[in-house]
């Protein structure tokens, strides 16, 4: 079984951070926020039953499933954000301007101080 | 061992490239018309339809699949996740970031007209060329790495399903006995069509049935599965250095797609009834 290398709290915080990055300051009114908080509260409540009850096993499995699902969702949000960031940084610039293309080989565009005479 | 790999990777600097790489269009399976749509809505919300299905509303309009059908999902969690994807768009719609939407569209439209048996057959066929079963003979360090990382997963799945899957280093790959295939076929028959769509997607991304099953069964998490799938690449990165615009880019994309596929399978296969038990008596 995969070890619970980070607590559910970290997954929860991570997801909320991602949601805030996506949705801005009003993220705590979004659908996803409410759903995620509901799920975490529900699963936290059932963990107390694990320790005492005989049939706590089934709740433990649901808790592990929810734990795995929360980490999966966190991974999804974080990776799409990182992927998009890398894409925009490296592959999203579009065509270079004339000045940028020239500077790639160390040249600069010619300038004529005083203008060319036919500008306003 | 996995942790030391990741630590060693971070020691190498990143090589930035000056050349321009063409932006990839990941999504355009059947929707070239939507290539550069601007964001045409402000609010995204979900609503419940007949029969317990959920729909996505963009402003006042209902979302439709590329095939023209109404976009419906069987449970609320998936609907909320899809709505979040649409909500995350800014200015232009970048379909290559909306993995869950893509998966739902595939499941709803079924553009290649697959049925469940065909998908199961395809998955079992993939087992013969499973990444985890294909070993190299040299360099020695890579052989060791493959043995240490892949063998545990292989043993786990052999124990879990009571099957035999060997590993081999010749070009033909391992011989999968028919009993193994039958066991897996029986297991996969219990998945519904949506879950099989997701599973097929994950298998295609990870290039491994073993790793996909291990992740779906929650033995591995997404990062571990992706690391194991890219084991040889990670080994080469360790030797030669990391290139951010290629290696990290691919890794994050693979993680995103695999996570979307895994989430899709989990959400499609769980039932949404909540049974309350009286524990505090």
UniProtKB/TrEMBL annotation, chain A:
Species in which this protein is naturally found: Scophthalmus maximus
Stated family: Belongs to the FMC1 family.
One Pfam family from the record: Complex1_LYR_2
Protein name: Protein FMC1 homolog
GO cellular component: mitochondrion
Physiological role: Plays a role in the assembly/stability of the mitochondrial membrane ATP synthase (F(1)F(0) ATP synthase or Complex V).
TrEMBL record, chain B:
Keyword check for Isomerase: no
Lineage of the organism: Eukaryota, Metazoa, Chordata, Craniata, Vertebrata
Keywords carried by this UniProt record: Chaperone, Membrane, Mitochondrion, Mitochondrion inner membrane, Transit peptide
InterPro entries the record matches: ATP12_ATP_synth-F1-assembly (IPR011419), ATP12_ATP_synth-F1-assembly_N (IPR042272), ATP12_ortho_dom_sf (IPR023335)
A Pfam family the protein falls into: ATP12
Main location: mitochondrion
Record's GO cellular component terms: mitochondrial inner membrane
Protein name, per record: ATP synthase mitochondrial F1 complex assembly factor 2
Annotated function: Plays a role in the assembly of the F1 component of the mitochondrial ATP synthase (ATPase).
Cellular compartment(s): Mitochondrion inner membrane
GO biological process, alphabetically ordered: mitochondrial proton-transporting ATP synthase complex assembly
Family stated for the protein in its record: Belongs to the ATP12 family.
Membrane topology, as annotated: Peripheral membrane protein
Subunit structure: Interacts with ATP5F1B; involved in the assembly of the F1 component of the mitochondrial ATP synthase (ATPase). Interacts with FMC1.
